[in-house]
Design a protein that fits this description.
This protein is mainly α and about 200 residues long. It has four helices and two strands. It starts with a strand and ends with a helix.
């Protein structure tokens, strides 16, 4: 089989054995002649930077100096960012611990307040029970107290009546002796005593 070299443009013979070998290996048929293939394989291989494509010296790393410095700078920036993130996380953790302690203290205070309220409720319950017992005892004395109150009202009424009669008596005596001379009063007293003396014993 005759094939045309795409590099030099000349035709070259591709033998039957070569065809079978290429087909056996699954290779595509060559596009260059044997001379061009040999010349290409003999060319020096140049190493270039895998980042920017700049040609590197023999034995150099896969990065040029500029790309290597840029990689170092990027690594330092990432390290600093990681450190800042770690510092922020540590600060948040400390704040969370502080808030947790504050919440624990508030919870303790609330529990103490609940305990005090329960104690006050128990005391109020005892006072209420005592008040109910006192009210029950007072209820048993209620009829006697009502009777005493009625007697006091009756005594007060009687006292008022006596006061009214005494006042009327004083007014009557005052009217009787208001226009009477001392001599007439003396005479009336003598007559009164004389009547008492003449009465049979």
């Amino acid at each position: 089989m005759n094939l045309t070299c795409r590099q030099c443009g000349r035709e070259f013979v591709f033998t039957k054995a070569e065809q079978e070998f290429y087909e056996l290996k699954g290779f595509t048929f060559p596009g260059r002649c044997q001379e061009c293939r040999s010349a290409r394989q003999g060319q020096a291989h140049h190493v270039v930077c895998s980042q920017c494509g700049t040609e590197l010296e023999k034995g150099a790393s896969i990065y040029c100096t500029a790309c290597l410095a840029s990689a170092h700078l990027e690594a330092e920036l990432k390290t600093k960012q990681s450190q800042r993130a770690a510092s922020a996380a540590h600060a948040k953790l400390q704040a969370s611990e502080s808030q947790k302690a504050e919440l624990a203290e508030l919870l303790r205070q609330k529990e103490q307040l609940v305990t005090e309220l329960e104690l006050k409720i128990n005391n109020l319950s005892e006072d209420l029970e005592k008040a109910q017992q006192f009210q029950t005892a007072l209820g048993s004395f209620q009829p006697a107290l009502r009777n005493i109150e009625e007697k006091l009202e009756a005594l007060e009424y009687t006292q008022n009546k006596i006061n009214e009669r005494l006042l009327q008596l004083v007014q009557r005596i005052h009217e009787m002796y208001e226009n009477t001379s001392l001599l007439e009063i003396f005479k009336r007293s003598l007559k009164h005593y004389q009547r008492q003396d003449t009465q049979p014993t």
